[in-house]
Design goal:
The protein is an alpha+beta fold and 443 residues long. It is built from nine helices and 24 strands. The N and C termini lie far apart (69 Å).
Length: 443
Amino acid sequence: METERENLCISKDDESSESAFHCSACHDDDEWSCANPIRGRAKTRSLSASPALGSTKEFRRTRSLHGPCPVTTFGPKACMLQNPKTIMHIQDPASQRLTWNKPPKSVLVIKKIRDASLLQPFKELCVYLTEENNMIVYVEKKVLEDPAIVNDDNFGPVKKKFCTFREDYDDISNQIDFIICLGGDGTLLYASSLFQGSVPPVMAFHLGSLGFLTPFNFENFQSQVTQVIEGNAALVLRSRLKVKVVKEHREKKTLIQNGIEENGVISTSLEMEMGKQIMQYQVLNEVVVDRGPSSYLSNVDVFLNGHLITTVQGDGVIVSTPTGSTAYAAAAGASMIHPNVPAIMITPICPHSLSFRPIVVPAGVELKIMLSPDARNTAWVSFDGRKRQEVCHGDSISITTSCYPLPSICFQDPVSDWFESLAECLHWNVRKKQNYFAVEEEF
């Protein structure tokens, strides 16, 4: 059985080989197709591949419009069960299923903070994982600081078995086999932010407000968790965005232990090049660039593969994944896209133009957002609602599709779960039925 599982899983040696997989969209040595600085040059809306008149330099496409091949190993032990019927190494999303290289031994339990209604489910789940499954449970330290947990003497023996961590201080990315979220969609976004590389499989229970991304109910959690541990579960790979923020001016920051800064940015992704500060993020829902506290319109240029496609004049712009299309982008008037569709969405926020509609671009493009040279004020950017920071003249935000998706465990399958969430959470297309004719009439 162990030999069969190893044959079904992707070799870790292949994963570590640079020759086996190298994606310019997900490595630090990526090069923009336009070598010269974009800011300050003459604006053009042309996306033609033909060289300009009088130019001897030919246009060469430097990247595919297809998104990067997603990494199909999730954490130390999980991977995707390969389908032998795949064509051209492209697997049907409906056939994506979880399997394990080795039985999982560690689990990260993420609980919504400051919610008393989750205390009892949290305790029941932890007791089940530690005592009945003999698993190592990781819990954030501030969760155990809740007075209701501190003062519970009956829960004390279980609590002593926990491994604790602190966000922005401890790196647990290589110690977690899978993740269980108790709460709403925010717990899933938080789980994504903890893993800037490969993400372990995530099982999300609907114990929050909306629950669009949390398909499991907690009533039968024992049998559902057992199925996941046994590797009997469908997966949906939710694509993430790899975001690189380049700032002209270096801000003074204090490094703390384990190479993580006090503002939460991992220092290994921060480099100094020619006096510029570079930070990288993995984003599950959206990147939002807005006007912040200023009363003026935001004025930002949007480039696609080095070409200026438009200038956003309004409250801001949203760049989202298909998963994020049902969040802020949906509120701003964008279409809702199934997470298996490889795409990036560009949605304006209250644009001062009647013709500025949201658009969908291929997953493989590179987007770059900068303040327009004639912008009256700065802008602000946030990543899944976190790490909010100011964007000044000369700063840039580069966005591509990441090769590290978030593997979300399905309750049924990717299609059924998505339409169930549309109906239950967003009440999609809810309308009183039209009355039928009681007596057949002649026309």
